[in-house]
Write a structure and sequence with these properties.
This protein has 20 helices and no strands. By secondary structure, it is an all-alpha fold. It is globular.
Length: 502
């Protein structure tokens, strides 16, 4: 499979999914209201917390699929592993979804700060969320098989199709059927079922066939024996995934209790806008990790590092200007996006902080890709353990004392510390001499030129009153930052002044 085509397909799909969500969200606010939209944010958070039950199996199946394609395992062992994982996923979805369904009444009455919506409607919405979250989580297993097989062109198209159903298809339902939370989440449950069926069908089509008469066996010991060899690796990923959920969702969980549901909707709005920075790096990681795992299986160390550095340069040249644009012009971005001046005023400080933190996070994720490909996550495990021990108490304190803005400051500080303290340590452990070249040649010019352009643009304060004109100015500012970052990257990569080879 062509890596360029896979990355391009992932990017096109991700851009489409992102744009659809961005363009449709103001209509959600109009038809549903800020308080009901707060339930949408709560639904998104529940999906993230549900991933704690994954035990690292979703990324592991993507890696094992890539290793199978690289010749590291045979078809029989791979099929046995897939069958065991399917049984585990099904049982976990039933247990987890059932627990969420039974807890809907408690959450609606004692956790959420509901002011205007009838509590009965909120409880029904939560009961509908439970199977929807479980179905979407199960889809991850089949998505891992497809991405590990590097069928990302098909996956990108299917993701775009599902996003169209999820974001656009619900609008006629809200307009002509009703705009209550129960109607919205009933429709989302149907879309989750369609997504699961589509992904499972495609995954089965790429599963390797076994010789006629070959039996996988049905004894209990034989069923789960294939999981044992990957258990250590998957549990390590499970811990890091748990850390990721705790780091990225603890503030959202705390604020869902502390904030009125309408204000929580505005917070969700800001975090969603800031997540655009991470969406830029997401398609690259989806295409990069299977290819890096394959190069490692083929013992191509030189190709592995070259791919790692090129991907860093590409993501940095896009993620850094996106982060700076959202941080500098947060209020203008939100106003152009929603047309709601109150929402823009409330959410702008949160967007600025989360956008900066996400910019550092998008780059700091690269050492994880390297460790993932090499199958050694020990340092990632230790680093994240230290990270969580420092971050969670400060995050809870900042959220309790200063609300959503405090959570934003904690998020920025944590990601800056991780980038400057832990990333160099990981690089020295796996590839000696890489970090300084990576920092100077792959990131240095992008950061310096981008920040210089941002400092100049930050002095501009004469914004027009027309939304269309503001949108054009934002586009121009974003392009200036993008161009500066690209020029900076090329300038340093072609420079010999540092005395180091790129």
């Amino acid at each position: 499979m062509s890596l360029k085509k896979n990355i391009l397909a992932s990017y096109v799909s991700q851009i489409y999914v992102t744009l659809v969500g961005i363009l449709i969200l103001p209509l959600y606010l109009r038809y549903m209201g800020a308080e009901a939209y707060g339930l949408v944010g709560f639904f998104t958070m529940l999906q993230a917390w549900f991933n704690l039950l994954d035990l690292g199996l979703t990324p592991t199946v993507a890696r094992e699929t890539a290793r199978f394609r690289g010749g590291a395992t045979d078809a029989y062992s791979y099929r046995r592993l897939l069958r065991a994982l399917q049984l585990i996923f099904f049982a976990t979805a039933i247990a987890g979804g059932g627990a969420m369904f039974l807890g809907a009444g408690l959450i609606s009455n004692q956790w959420l700060q509901v002011k205007n919506l009838p509590l009965a409607q909120v409880q029904v919405a939560l009961e509908l969320m439970a199977p929807g979250v479980a179905l979407r989580w199960m889809s991850g297993l089949y998505r891992g098989c497809i991405s590990g097989s590097e069928r990302l062109v098909w996956l990108g198209g299917f993701n775009a199709f599902v996003a169209t159903l999820r974001f656009v298809g619900v609008l006629p339902v809200l307009i002509w059927v009703g705009h209550s939370p129960a109607v919205f989440f009933s429709y989302q449950l149907l879309v989750a079922l369609i997504e699961l069926v589509g992904l499972a069908s495609k995954a089965y089509s790429v599963f390797p066939t076994l010789p006629r008469g070959t039996s996988l066996g049905w004894s209990l010991a034989l069923l789960f024996a294939p999981v044992k060899p990957i258990l250590k690796f998957s549990l390590t990923i499970a811990f890091t995934s748990s850390v990721w959920v705790l780091v990225t969702q603890t503030d959202k969980l705390a604020l869902s209790k502390l904030l009125p549901l309408a204000d929580y909707g505005y917070f969700t709005l800001a975090v969603l806008a800031a997540s655009g920075v991470l969406m830029i790096s997401g398609p690259v990681s989806g295409a990069l990790m299977p290819r890096m795992a394959r190069l490692q299986a083929e013992n191509d160390e030189e190709g592995l590092i070259a791919l790692y550095r090129k991907a860093t340069q590409m993501v940095a040249a896009i993620a850094i200007p996106a982060s700076l644009t959202l941080a500098l012009f947060a209020e203008q971005v939100l106003w152009v996006w929603t047309g709601d001046a109150r929402a823009a005023t409330h959410a702008a400080p949160i967007l600025s902080l989360y956008a900066l933190g996400n910019g550092f996070l998008a780059i700091s994720a690269f050492p994880y890709y390297l460790q993932f490909a090499k199958g050694d996550l020990k340092l990632h495990l230790i680093g994240n353990l230290l990270f969580i021990l420092l971050l969670i108490p400060s995050l809870l304190w900042a959220t309790w004392e200063f609300g959503a803005t405090g959570a934003g400051y904690a998020w920025v500080a944590a990601n800056v510390a991780y980038f400057f303290i832990w990333v160099p340590f990981v690089h020295r452990r796996f590839v000696k001499g890489l970090h300084h070249r990576w920092l100077i040649f792959d990131l240095g010019g992008t950061l310096v030129f981008g920040c210089a352009a941002a400092a100049l643009l930050g002095k501009f304060s004469n914004w027009p009153a027309n939304r269309s004109e503001v949108a054009l100015l934002l586009l121009a500012g974003g392009l200036i930052l993008l161009g500066s970052c690209v020029v900076g990257s090329r300038f340093v990569l072609s420079s010999k002044k540092f005395g180091l080879r790129p």
